[in-house]
Amino acid sequence: MKRAYLPVMKSLGMAVLALSSLTSVAYANQEAKPAKADAAKGEALYKNGDAARGIVACASCHGEAGNSTISVNPKLAAQHDAYLVKQLTEFASGARNNATMTAFAKSLTADDMKNVAVYLNAQKSAPGAAKNKDIVELGKQIYRGGIAEKNVPACAGCHSPNGAGIPAQFPRIAGQHQDYTLAQLQAFYNGSRKDGAKIQGSRVNSVQMTTIAKSMSEDEMRAVADYIAGLK
């Protein structure tokens, strides 16, 4: 009778061992999952920086809650968090060229970037306003309908009619400072801005924006920038 039990006991032992192995693998996979972004930590870093690591407060350049009051520094409030992480990652790697932001981004960990991005995404963006009534109508026409004779597509096609953008693909631009938007269009035009990374498998707007900007005149860029500033 004892011999009859041996195969059964052996099978049970192997099953227990297999179950134990599967449990260990599942636990290991669970442990390997990235930590969830922490908006509270992002807020603290954004507002106060981290003196121990030589990180200055983001707010010193980008304003309270991401609402920059310096026209050459972008508003970041309500920006898509995936887009913000992408830009910080590219500043850190040098894929996007800006000496100040590269030095800052290199001091951040991947978790820092995610935390700050989630915090900013949750903030309310302060409205901007168009300033030049003589060109804003041209900006509106280009933003909504493009420039057919130059093969310039409507900005609204990617950035949405109200400038809210498309999460994980195209950034929010509504209410952005005229000076900053114009500077970015010029940077795409002259090739100094090249965003080469991907967000969730989608090619982000570097190639498209370079082609578009090269087809636009300075006046057309200014008009679009002014119209964008008034979007809500």
Number of helices: 11
The coarse silhouette is globular
Q: Spans of 5+ residues with little confidence (pLDDT < 50)?
A: 12-30, 199-204
Quaternary state of this entry equals single chain
Instruction: Write the H/E string, N to C.
Output: HHHHHHHHHEEHH
Quick one: how many beta strands? 2
Strand order of the largest sheet: 1-2
Could you tell me the mean pLDDT? 87
Output the radius of gyration: 25 Å
What is the helical fraction, as a range of percent? 40-55%
Structural class: mainly alpha
Give the termini separation. 83 Å
- How much of the polypeptide forms β-strand, as a percent range? under 5%
Biggest pleated sheet? 2 strands, antiparallel
Give keywords.
2 strands; two-stranded antiparallel sheet; 54% helix; 232 residues; mainly alpha; single chain; 11 helices
